[in-house]
Amino acid sequence: MISAILLAAGQSKRMNDENKLIKNIKGLPLIKHSIINILESSVDELIIITGYQSKKLEKTINKNKKIKIVFNNQFKTGMSSSIKIGLKNLSKKTKAFFICLGDMPMVNKNIYNQLIKYVDSKEIIIPNYNKKHGNPILFSISMKDKIMNIKGDVGAKELIEKNKDKILNLEINDQGIIKNYNFVSDFID
Questions:
Q1: Given Cys at both, which of 48, 69, 127, 137 links 172, Cβ 3.0 to 4.6 Å?
Q2: ∠162-92-142 over CA atoms, to 5°?
Q3: Contacts of 153 by beta carbon, 8 Å cutoff, 6+ apart
Q4: What is the 3-state secondary structure (H, E, C) of 112-172?
């Protein structure tokens, strides 16, 4: 089973109290683009971690048997708390999991499926565009305990630095893996 943890708890601090994940982009809330892309891929389970303005965000999410919504009551402490809650909610059958960012609408189903093809090759599979690391990152379940020890608002960057021998850098010919909400105008055009 392949799972995806979609981080959607952030406070959108640079957005003047407006939650960027519920802003309409191409007629849909930003978060829905990420959800649709994941659900259209070969991912078996989607765990959406909410926090800031969770009720507003949850109203934008359609019910689906693959989706589990989990509220992170510690969302103000940073991204690592959301990742850990996602890990605690993985199916017992999960063999690998993505850590996905809710503000990356250009990561399409083909990107997820390309990464999944390499699931058995290394413990960490990182998509790259022109040799630049992107998202989402696919982790083997064997990395779960190490990820549970991360802290703060930097995600798994330090863990990745310390485990270079476990990484497959996979070149993906799609700049969607490096473009977040700040580049959404590229997505709209």
A1: 127
A2: 20
A3: 77, 78, 79, 80
A4: HHHHHCCCCCCCEEEEEECCEECCCEEEEHHHHHHHCCCCCCCCCHHHHHHCHHHEEEEEC
Asked, as a colleague might, if the bond just before 127 is cis with ω within 30 of 0, I would say: no
- pLDDT tens, position by position, 16-63: 566 788 888 888 999 999 999 999 999 999 999 999 888 999 999 999
Report which secondary-structure segment, H or E, holds 68.
strand 67-71
Contacts of 154 (CB under 8 A, 6+ apart): 78, 79, 80
149 class by beta-carbon count within 10 Å (0-12 exposed, 13-18 middle, 19+ buried): exposed
C-alpha span between 4 and 112 (Å, rounded): 10
Q: pTM for this one?
A: 0.92
Q: List b or e across 54-89, with b for residues whose CB sees 16 or more CB atoms inside 10 angstroms.
A: beebeebbeeeeebbbbbbeebeebbbbbbbbbbeb
The Cα 121–Cα 58 span in angstroms is 35
Q: How far is CA 152 from CA 84, 88, 132, in A?
A: 11, 17, 23
